[in-house]
Amino acid sequence: MTVLAQQCGASGRMPTLFWNHGGGPMPLLGDRSQASLTQYLKGVAARLPKPTAILAVSAHWEAEKVMVSTCPAPPMLFDYYGFPPETYQFKYPAPGDPALAQRVLGLLGSAGIAAGADASRGYDHGTFVPLMLAYPEARVPVVQMSVLRSMDPGAHLAIGRALAPLRDEGVLIVGSGMTFHNMGVLMGGMRGGGGRFKPSEAFDSWLTAACTEAVGSKRAELLTGWAKAPGGRESHPREEHFIPLLVAAGAAGEEPGRVDYSDWVMGTKISGFVFGTAP
C-alpha cells in the first residue's frame, strides 16, 4: 500500500487530483512526445485509494452554469479532428452515476451555485482519454461536470469547496486539463521546432509553488491571480484547460498539495497535482 493510500485510509477522505489529459487522443496512440504522460496515467490509479466513483471536471465542456451529466450509460463524444480512423472507434463503457449526479447538484444548490442536469452528454476526450489509461477496466462509475464559460477563478474555487463533502463519500474529484495550453507553441513542439519554451517553465515553477507551498486562502489568492504569474498568459492565452485545477484545489480546502507528475511535453513544461495527501 502506498503512503498516499495509507493516509487516505486513515482519514477516510479521498484526495483530489489534477491531471493533464494530453493532446486529443495522442496518449492512447503511443505518441513518443507524450510517452511519460501516458506512463503516468497508466500508473496513477495504483497510487490512489480505490474510489467509489469519479467526478471528472473536463476542460472540454463549457457552459453558462455548471452542468452535470446524469446519463446512466454515457456515449462517446469524439470532440477532436484529423486523427486516424481508429481514434473514432474507442469505447469506454464505464457507467454513469445518476445518484451521484443528483448529489453534486444538491451540494452546488446548497452553496448557491447555479447548476443543471444534462441527460445526454457523452464522455469527451478530456474524460475518456485519461480514464482509458488510468482505469481501463471501466468499472468505476463516472460523472462528468462542466466548467463555467466565464472562466472565473474564484467561482471555480467555490465550486470545489462546495463539492468537498464528496471526498468523505469515496468520490475522486478529478480536474482534467493541461497546465500549459498554447496551441501555437504546442504545434511548434510537435513539428520539432523551437526547443524548450521558457515561459512554460516559469509558469510551471510558479504554479508548483502555489499548489504545494500554499494552502487555504493563500493558495486561493495565488491561483485567482494566475494570469499575472510569470508566463501565465503565454501558457494559457485562454484558460479553459487551467480552470479544472481550481476545482480540485478548492475541494482540498486547507489540505496541502504535491506534484504527482512533471515533465517536458512537446517542448513545454507541464505538471500534475494531488491535493489532500495529509491524514
UniProtKB/TrEMBL annotation:
Superkingdom as given in the UniProt entry: Eukaryota
| Extradiol ring-cleavage dioxygenase class III enzyme subunit B domain: residues covered | 44-258
The Gene Ontology terms for molecular function here are: ferrous iron binding; oxidoreductase activity, acting on single donors with incorporation of molecular oxygen, incorporation of two atoms of oxygen; zinc ion binding
> Known Pfam families for this protein?
LigB (PF02900)
Q: Gene3D superfamilies, from UniProt?
A: LigB-like
Its cofactor is: Zn(2+)
Task: Give the record's keywords alphabetically.
Answer: Metal-binding, Oxidoreductase, Zinc
Family, according to the entry, reads as follows: Belongs to the DODA-type extradiol aromatic ring-opening dioxygenase family.
Please state what the protein is called: Extradiol ring-cleavage dioxygenase class III enzyme subunit B domain-containing protein
